[in-house]
Amino acid sequence: MIHQCTSKVSQSPFPNFKPPPRKPSSLIAHCGSNLELDSKPPAIRLGPHTGRDPNVKKPGWLRQKAPQGEKYEEVKESLSRLKLNTVCEEAQCPNIGECWNGGSDGIATATIMVLGDTCTRGCRFCAVKTSRNPAPPDPMEPYNTAEAVVSWGVDYIVVTSVDRDDLPDGGSGHFAETVKAMKRLKPDIMVECLTSDFRGDVEAVSTLVQSGLDVFAHNIETVKRLQRIVRDPRAGPIPFDVTHPKDETSSQSDWMKSQDISPNLIRKRKLKDRKILHLKGTLASTSCRESTPVMTQQVVRRVGSTQEKKRRGDGALLFFGSREYEQSLSVLKHAKLSKEGMITKSSIMLGLGETDDELKETMADLRAIGVDILTLGQYLQPTPLHLTVKDYVSPEKFAFWKDYGESIGFRYVASGPLVRSSYRAGELFVKTMVKQERAKNTRDITM
Length: 447
What we know:
This protein has 16 helices and 15 strands. β13, α14 and β14 form a beta-alpha-beta unit. The longest helix has 20 residues, at 427-446. The strands form three sheets. Strands 1-2-5-6-7-13-14-15 form an eight-stranded mixed β-sheet. Strands 8-9-10-11-12 form a five-stranded antiparallel β-sheet, with no helix packed on it. A two-stranded parallel sheet has the order 3-4. By secondary structure, the protein is an alpha/beta fold. α7 (172-185) packs parallel to α8 (202-209). It has a domain at 64-236 and 321-446: TIM Barrel, CATH 3.20.20.70. Pathway: Protein modification; protein lipoylation via endogenous pathway; protein N(6)-(lipoyl)lysine from octanoyl-[acyl-carrier-protein]: step 2/2.
């Protein structure tokens, strides 16, 4: 009886009924009727888009072997033992295997990153961790760095740092002490410092220049038009000569707090064909026509207080914002002028959508302030949340830019898909430059 009951229930009461055809999903309707059932859906683009499909495979010239080897493990062990950070690991440098294994000269080295492993800025190309309040610098870091460098037996070392906008001097004093510690243990070592912009503080720049370093490097990163897409807005300062006279008791961060200025986005609205991003105390406009919202060259705030109007004039505009490009140039220029014979260096990433004319303009601006060395390399997206790659520049085009750079006056140009600002390419040439400058300074002193 139970069997019969079950059999009856399983039969359809409407044997001739046919269900209506299912409507295509939004995905099938969007992609067209030819979409096969077993085909993969379009990939989701996570990072800010600059024009290229992030799922396109890298060309063969960008492929590197996985880092390994005896010397690689030795360097890794010494860094771990001394609690040191490297930009090689934090920024996911593709050349880590070559440098840590010794390269062509067999001498293993790494680019030390001082002031901790956490940056106060969040540039959209960089994989280094970020935080508003990173841990205080390790007071033993300068001496541990010197110990590691001496143990490697190198005669040329690159030291870099995270941005530390939370420190009064931007970390320049700690950075300078690291250089001095290395020079004390090994006086003939050549030190290249790849620095932040210190928020444009020339005193911080001078502190580091006078520490005994041999090469002052600061990266301009990209062409002028793309600065606000690529770099953190805090790389462009609020000028003291316009807003508030700097004195011995005030700092830029204190002044920003007093004016209730913050980079936090609090609301958006549209105005005709332009998008207005309202920041707390600032106003930045961006074009809706851009594939990625980008702050324009002028970021302004209407001066509202009566006191400010009396001091600056009724209805005055306070200019903020996209000064990253000019600030980087001013830092490099001040470093060049702060010490006789100082070698300066900068770097540009390619593949972010720059044009040839824009790149030539940036190279000309760097030469105009006396920059000696330039490195050009391919931008690679470190994670899906970072800027996507616009295009992959061929090795032949990199060779062209090397020739062009040297033709307009750079003393040396390292240009290639895997070249990085702290890469060892051209290290021998830079060593020769440093030795020549040292010999020249010695002759000047004796005379």
